[in-house]
């Protein structure tokens, strides 16, 4: 309960200041009004901080899930890894449920900045898992469909001030289209890494599938262009780089795949990507 | 759903979002124009001749607030009521200016701090979020801070115009405002930045009061905080 202490100190200071300035009139309408504002602002800031904290947890757990999913290319039993990732993501969804709980009755855009990084990371993780399983892009509806929460008693304690009608027993969290878009843009970076590592494991098919898929996503982003949010145009640049790397990988495989023994492919490939890297920085 | 289908769905959403923002921008532009007109009307109180005309200027400003009310009513129709904060940035600035103008008018009339409820009433908006288009507490406070710097200017100009008592009353008022703001635990945000400027306004008014009292121009009896 650090927060309480942190709050106490400035409060004492301001009390002293108040004695000095308006000591003759501590209960003036102005001071009374500002006491109300103080409460309102503190409540808002506290909620914001709580959301930031949950969002950070969501980010960390999602990142771990992504790392876990990268192991899929190197282990024999992919299904086991995927199931483990599913369990992890369930935990993440629990946390998003907490966000939804905090936001009940609020305007989600008021606190959007507090949790958008976490949500983007979640979209990245969940779409990565979906791609590995189904080789397709998860849709926004599919993501949102899994973010429906039943309310449980424990959360009641920190519930928002206003009375909640009985109909609000089921909580939903809606990922905004922009968050979805940014999450998908991040996904492409993961797909690029997956492509490179799968070559390292002698998997020849996956890179071609991935380049196909990445091209589709790239086309999609080009279609949206700069009509989207500001961050999209920034991510588009990284997306181009990722696509370039994957396309180069496929090129190398095609050209040299026939002449080099399979077990040496990985070596050829890694030496080639290191040559590409510095060029990429210039572009 | 294929990748391209998904992207055209998102694109549709983005276009709709863009259109709403365009609409809002247009209305806000008109609103800003009206706010500037009101400001021009009120600026004349800084003229030496303007001090006698304060009541008539305030009345004129209040008339113009009727226009503001219809324009805000128009703005309300441009977006879904529950998505206030999604588009907040568009009218945040103008709403702060309007709050300042309302607060200034009310101060000139009654020398008291306008309450958030009064501002909301004059602008025909709500105080609490649940009821629709409302005045965010931070915007209200920002508006009040703009008024503080306007008052420090008024204090200087009222001395020039020969009104030696007004600065003392303004000084009391600003000091009270300052202690009010000190109650708040502000985060490192725009409001905090603006609040940091308040001490310069306080300082300036204190200098004016000092100049007056050292020359015996201020009557001691006036300095005991009325109000």
UniProtKB/TrEMBL annotation, chain A:
Residues 1-22 have a biased composition (Basic and acidic residues). Mg(2+) binds at residues 124, 190. One of its GO terms (cellular component) is nucleus. GO terms for biological process: cell differentiation; spermatogenesis. Keywords: Cytoplasm, Developmental protein, Differentiation, DNA-binding, Golgi apparatus, Isopeptide bond, Magnesium, Metal-binding, Nucleus, Spermatogenesis, Ubl conjugation. InterPro entries: Translin_C, Translin_fam, Translin_N, Translin_sf. SUPFAM superfamilies: Translin. GO terms for molecular function: metal ion binding; sequence-specific DNA binding. It is found in: Cytoplasm, Perinuclear region; Golgi apparatus; Nucleus. Gene3D superfamilies: Translin, domain 1 (1.20.58.190), Translin, domain 2 (1.20.58.200). Its main location: cytoplasm. It comes from the Eukaryota. Residues 1-29 are annotated as: Disordered. Belongs to the translin family. Ring-shaped heterooctamer of six TSN and two TSNAX subunits. Interacts with GOLGA3, TSNAXIP1, SUN1 and AKAP9. Interacts with the homodimeric form of C1D following gamma-radiation. Interacts with TSN and C1D in a mutually exclusive manner. Acts in combination with TSN as an endonuclease involved in the activation of the RNA-induced silencing complex (RISC). Possible role in spermatogenesis. This is Translin-associated protein X. It comes from Mastacembelus armatus (zig-zag eel). The lineage of its organism: Eukaryota, Metazoa, Chordata, Craniata, Vertebrata.
From TrEMBL, chain B:
One of its GO terms (cellular component) is nucleus. Mg(2+) binds at residue 150. It is found in: Cytoplasm; Nucleus. GO terms for molecular function: endonuclease activity; hydrolase activity; metal ion binding; RNA binding; sequence-specific DNA binding; single-stranded DNA binding. Belongs to the translin family. PANTHER family: TRANSLIN AND TRANSLIN ASSOCIATED PROTEIN X (PTHR10741). DNA-binding protein that specifically recognizes consensus sequences at the breakpoint junctions in chromosomal translocations, mostly involving immunoglobulin (Ig)/T-cell receptor gene segments. Seems to recognize single-stranded DNA ends generated by staggered breaks occurring at recombination hot spots. Exhibits both single-stranded and double-stranded endoribonuclease activity. May act as an activator of RNA-induced silencing complex (RISC) by facilitating endonucleolytic cleavage of the siRNA passenger strand. This is Translin. It comes from Mastacembelus armatus.
